[in-house]
């Protein structure tokens, strides 16, 4: 590891970021902490935008620029494990490891201070990865700064600790949230015929969502029911409004949009037949994430230089990732670092970022930044 980077200090930094856990597009305290750290500890040029920032180390060749991205947001999951650095915001915690991702990028900033680099290096601290909004907000930076390559990593339970996990080509799928809202007429529960209860239509949508994906031949196409709302359980009321939320996932965005079209068309037919009005809305949109082969080769070369075991994923990681927005604009790669084969899963109360993989992540980024 670079001589300017003290591993224990980086762990302390990660813990400090953990305490500031904030939801997507609300990362104000986190952002100011990062900005203050960069301005006080590095000579990098720091630019703050609306809810995010980037920092640049100018290299000898200003036309060649490489970027690294870290996400800043946390999840609406309470901190239930006893940590001395527990989240200071009730009901919100870093259960996906973005605190670790940020700490690695800050460590890279420290390392760049004493590195001679041919390429200029841009560090992007992005908001709202969990909702898919952040990558879309920040992607224009690729063109504004003339970035030629971009890299990111994610910690990944289920693989040997410190291993470099990767997939060629498509590595994470496209996804979106689809909300179908039905409006009918409320009535007394003793006279349901005087109202128009959407319960049967909601049931039909659930059944349809389960069978429609079987007609596709993609390696992965999913339609997951994530929420159904109908009434409040009052036994004297037949509700008139209801909604169903579905998460759609596919290898290709066009297949996901085709699935969306078919579900919305079916819902419209059912609503019309039942005399209900229908409103459809899209939420948390994520593009597919596809690795550039040349950039992925650089990742694997860095892993080999570090003596790290590289593991090829036999199938894509089903979770979506808004890093795909950047990869539509320039070459790059997303890779993963194993947390441990039995490590608690992401997005669960038992999870906390594994500090033992920080050094591996930092060294990988340092080598990629130094690549000629």
Description:
This protein has ten helices and 16 strands. The chain has 372 residues and is of the alpha/beta class. The chain has two domains: 7-171 and 288-370, Aminopeptidase, CATH 3.40.630.10; 174-285, Alpha-Beta Plaits (2-Layer Sandwich). The strands form four sheets. Strands 1-2-4-3-5-16-6-15 form an eight-stranded mixed β-sheet. It has a four-stranded antiparallel β-sheet with strand order 10-12-8-13, with helices on one face. Strand 3 (61-71), helix 3 (98-112) and strand 4 (119-126) form a beta-alpha-beta unit. Helix 1 (7-19) packs across helix 3, helix 3 (98-112) crosses helix 10 (358-370) and helix 6 (199-211) runs antiparallel to helix 7.
Please tag this protein with its features.
16 strands; alpha/beta; 372 residues; elongated; 8-stranded mixed beta sheet; 4-stranded antiparallel beta sheet
Write the layout of secondary structure elements.
Layout: H1 7-19, H2 28-41, E1 45-49, E2 52-57, E3 61-71, H3 98-112, E4 119-126, H4 133-138, H5 141-144, E5 149-156, E6 164-166, E7 170-172, E8 174-183, E9 187-188, H6 199-211, E10 221-230, E11 237-238, E12 241-250, H7 253-274, E13 277-286, E14 289-290, H8 293-305, E15 310-312, H9 324-327, E16 332-338, H10 358-370
Parallel strand pairs: 3-4, 3-5, 5-16, 6-15
Antiparallel strand pairs: 1-2, 2-4, 6-16, 7-14, 8-12, 8-13, 9-11, 10-12
Helix pairs in contact: 1-3, 2-3, 3-10, 6-7
């Amino acid at each position: 590891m670079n001589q300017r980077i003290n591993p224990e200090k980086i762990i302390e930094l990660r813990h400090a970021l953990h305490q500031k856990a904030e939801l997507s597009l609300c990362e104000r305290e986190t952002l100011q902490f990062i900005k203050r750290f960069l301005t006080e500890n590095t000579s990098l040029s720091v630019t703050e935008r609306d809810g995010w920032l980037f920092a640049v180390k100018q290299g000898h060749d200003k036309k060649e620029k490489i970027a690294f991205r870290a996400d800043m947001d946390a999840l609406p999951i309470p901190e239930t494990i006893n940590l001395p650095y527990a989240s200071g915001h009730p009901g919100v915690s870093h259960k996906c490891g973005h605190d670790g991702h940020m700490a690695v990028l800050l460590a890279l900033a420290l390392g760049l201070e004493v590195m001679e680099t041919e390429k200029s290096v841009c560090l992007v601290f992005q908001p709202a990865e969990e909702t898919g909004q952040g990558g879309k907000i920040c992607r224009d930076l690729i063109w504004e700064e003339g970035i030629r390559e971009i890299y990111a990593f994610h910690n990944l339970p289920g693989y040997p600790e410190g291993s470099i996990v990767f997939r060629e080509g498509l590595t994470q799928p496209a996804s979106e949230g689809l909300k179908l809202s039905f409006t009918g007429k409320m009535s007394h529960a003793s006279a349901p015929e005087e109202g128009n209860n959407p319960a049967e239509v909601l049931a039909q949508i659930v059944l349809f969502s389960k069978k429609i994906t079987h007609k596709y031949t993609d390696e992965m196409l999913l339609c997951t029911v994530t929420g159904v709302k109908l009434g409040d359980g009052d036994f004297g009321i037949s509700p008139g409004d209801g909604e169903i939320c579905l998460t759609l996932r596919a290898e290709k965005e066009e297949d996901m949009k085709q699935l969306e079209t078919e579900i919305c068309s079916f819902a419209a037919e059912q609503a019309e037949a039942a005399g209900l009005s229908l409103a459809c809305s899209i939420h948390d949109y994520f593009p597919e994430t596809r690795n550039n082969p040349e950039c992925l080769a650089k990742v694997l070369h860095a892993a080999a230089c570090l003596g790290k075991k590289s593991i090829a994923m036999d199938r894509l990681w089903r979770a979506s990732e808004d890093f795909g927005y950047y990869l539509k604009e320039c070459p790059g790669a997303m890779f993963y670092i194993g947390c441990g084969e039995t490590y608690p899963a992401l997005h669960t109360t038992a999870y906390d970022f594994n500090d033992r993989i920080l050094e591996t992540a930092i060294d990988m980024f340092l080598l990629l930044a130094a690549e000629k």
